[in-house]
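Lecture notes, part 5. Sequence design as translation. It can be helpful to think of inverse folding as translation between two languages: the language of shapes and the language of residues. The source text, in structure tokens, appears below.
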């Protein structure tokens, strides 16, 4: 694929919208309709689709009914992402190529990149725009409320998001003195001028974890970013099957956490203590006093596990069950390390990507 030419929309060419919403799509027939319905119905007075903002859907070679679903919505502009080179992918992942295509076509002063698996609350777009302006930031990113189904998602997802909350504290993300940068690709709103100034998705074109990489670009360029949990703005169902969940976290975990093996060892210790201490306390080789002390230590371990997992923003029952997700988290963390750090190849949506570190 030939890399797209950098073109920044000109104010003189056409009147600009307040906002351009860009939705990259690859085989999202199960979720795209709900996403577009929630976006197209954003009808706050003075913020009408087609007058104050535009909605761009960029199709990345979908083979399902995603295109047909997008065509049903009046006011949606449907674009095609450029074909990727079969071997090197032309210096782009599919999502980055789609986002970059949408950004070049957009005519909004602000750009919102949002995934097809999101559902947006009424008025959330205009509220986000006001929040970005209130805090005088160049990038605003939200972590959505997670919709999970099935046992494996309910026990695993709180563990993952608790670790993410600890690795990327929002206060440090927004602190210009901190080197920690983070964003969630499910909702990233940026000033268009700042986006093109730092290079946008073209500058992170080869990155599988493009949202965090893009946030890093903004922060290194001394442009303020804001990141927060936002159940008031949108929700997402990241994975519809267990297989998709396993593939997704295999792709991401070793990229999200800078030290995956030490993290795996710490969670393994938690698991061993959670299981091993009760076994030891009930052993015939332990007297009553020793058993009591062991149970006290076990309760302390349990409290520490749950104190961490409550940072995930998941419902209480899911947090309680999450201790049973530790083995799966350990498995996926090590699996991700092998794929990302050793083999340097990951699979996602029918494509294989080589992983490079910057």
């Amino acid at each position: 694929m030939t890399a797209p030419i950098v073109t920044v929309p000109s104010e003189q060419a056409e009147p600009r919208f307040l906002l351009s919403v860009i939705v990259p799509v690859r085989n999202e027939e199960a979720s795209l309709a709900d996403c577009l319905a929630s976006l197209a119905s954003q009808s706050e007075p003075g913020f009408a689709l087609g007058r104050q903002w535009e909605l761009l859907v960029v199709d990345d070679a979908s083979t399902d009914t995603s295109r047909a679903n997008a065509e049903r919505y009046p006011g949606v502009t449907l674009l095609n992402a450029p074909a990727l080179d079969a071997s090197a992918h032309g210096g782009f992942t599919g999502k980055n190529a789609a986002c970059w295509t949408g950004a070049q076509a957009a005519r909004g002063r602000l750009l919102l990149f949002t995934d097809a698996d999101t559902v947006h609350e009424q008025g959330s777009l205009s509220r986000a725009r006001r929040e970005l302006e209130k805090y005088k930031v160049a990038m605003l990113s939200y972590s959505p409320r997670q919709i999970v189904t099935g046992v494996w998602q309910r026990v695993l997802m709180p563990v993952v998001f608790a670790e993410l909350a600890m690795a990327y504290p929002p206060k440090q993300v927004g602190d210009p003195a901190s080197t920690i940068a983070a964003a969630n690709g499910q909702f990233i709103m940026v000033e268009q001028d700042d986006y093109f100034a730092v290079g946008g998705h073209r500058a992170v074109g080869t990155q599988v974890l493009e949202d965090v990489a893009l946030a890093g670009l903004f922060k290194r360029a001394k442009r303020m970013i804001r990141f927060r949990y936002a159940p008031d703005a949108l929700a997402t169902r990241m994975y519809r099957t267990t297989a998709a969940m396993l593939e997704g976290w295999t792709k991401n975990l070793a990229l999200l956490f800078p030290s995956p093996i030490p993290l795996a060892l710490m969670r393994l210790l938690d698991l061993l203590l959670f299981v091993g201490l009760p076994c030891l306390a009930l052993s015939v080789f332990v007297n009553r006093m020793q058993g009591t002390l062991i149970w006290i230590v076990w309760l302390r371990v349990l409290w520490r596990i749950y104190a961490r997992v409550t940072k995930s923003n998941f419902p209480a029952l899911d947090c309680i069950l999450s201790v049973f997700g530790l083995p799966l988290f350990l498995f996926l963390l090590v699996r991700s390390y092998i794929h990302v750090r050793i083999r340097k190849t990951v699979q996602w949506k029918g494509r294989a990507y080589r992983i490079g570190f910057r």
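The translated text above is only one of many valid answers, since several sequences can fold into similar shapes. DSSP finds 14 helices and twelve strands in the chain.
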